[in-house]
Amino acid sequence: MVILVVAEYDTAHVRPGSRSALGVARDLAARSGERVEWLVLGSGLDSVASDAARFAPVTVADHPLLVQATADRYARVIADVARAHEASVILANATTFAKDILPRAAALLGAAMAGDVTGYSFADGELLLRRPMYAGATTATVTLAGRPYIITVRASAFPPAEPLAKSGECVAWNVVAATLPNQIEYVGLESRPTMRPDLTEARVVVSVGRAFRSSEEFEQYVGRLADALKGAAGCTRALVDDGITPNEWQVGQTGKVVAPELYVALGISGAIQHLAGMKNSRIVVAVNSDAEAPIFSIANYGLVGDVRQITPALIEELNR
Ligand SMILES: Cc1cc2nc3c(=O)[nH]c(=O)nc-3n(C[C@H](O)[C@H](O)[C@H](O)COP(=O)(O)OP(=O)(O)OC[C@H]3O[C@@H](n4cnc5c(N)ncnc54)[C@H](O)[C@@H]3O)c2cc1C
Question: Fewer CB in 10 Å around end: N or C, the chain?
Answer without folding.
Answer: C
